[in-house]
Automatic annotation (TrEMBL):
Family matches, as SUPFAM superfamilies: C-terminal effector domain of the bipartite response regulators (SSF46894), CheY-like (SSF52172)
PANTHER family for the chain: TWO-COMPONENT RESPONSE REGULATOR
Gene3D superfamilies assigned: 3.40.50.2300, Winged helix-like DNA-binding domain superfamily/Winged helix DNA-binding domain (1.10.10.10)
GO biological process, alphabetically ordered: phosphorelay signal transduction system; regulation of DNA-templated transcription
Name of the molecule in the record: DNA-binding response regulator
Annotated ranges, domain HTH luxR-type: 138-204
Phosphoprotein is among the record's keywords: yes
Keyword DNA-binding in record: yes
UniProt keyword terms in alphabetical order: DNA-binding, Phosphoprotein
Organism: Bizionia arctica
UniProt domain Response regulatory: residue ranges: 4-119
An example Gene Ontology molecular-function term: DNA binding
4-aspartylphosphate: residues carrying this PTM: 54
Amino acid sequence: MQASIIIADDHPLILRGLNDFLIEKKYNVLASAVNGKEAFDLIESHKPDIAILDIQMPYFTGLEIAEKCKDLDYHTKIILITFEKDETIYKQAKNLGIYGYVLKEFALEEIEHCIDNVIRDIPYFSRELLSSLEVEEAPEELETLTPTEIEVIKYISDNKTAKEIGDLMFTSFRTVEKHKSNINKKLNLTPTKYSLLFWAKENKNHLI
């Protein structure tokens, strides 16, 4: 069964363009909204699999809606679309468990890839966003990783699952999970569902 989607943006032309594009691509778009209150009402009434939300909207922002959904334990996965390339907003989105972050200038190029990742339960953050944020020096903890562990992280940064990594490295799923556990410890990461994925993407440029 195809994932159900609602979309919201207070710019009519962007909303219509995104709506028409998704319908043309045969996505199951249930409804659309022009402000945050309408968007949250649609999430409450339809319980969609995915909500694609503008960050800056009247009444509720996309982040405020995400926070409400998190507090209410709704299972709708939030994708944010925005012009903002702001590190603070990015960190807020990560902390709220946002599944996708797509820049509007690349929305039609990236939204399909983003949705397909989210359907597979893999967060997607625009490469342009990550590359525009300030790049820090390589974390010292990176030096503690073995070549095999670095290879695992490279695959993780490309959204590969543990099974896919195992197939690529000719090893078992269990071995990959063990590597991931060791990497989390060496990097001092809280072993939440996506902590390693976000670390891998943020530090991809340092993975030689």
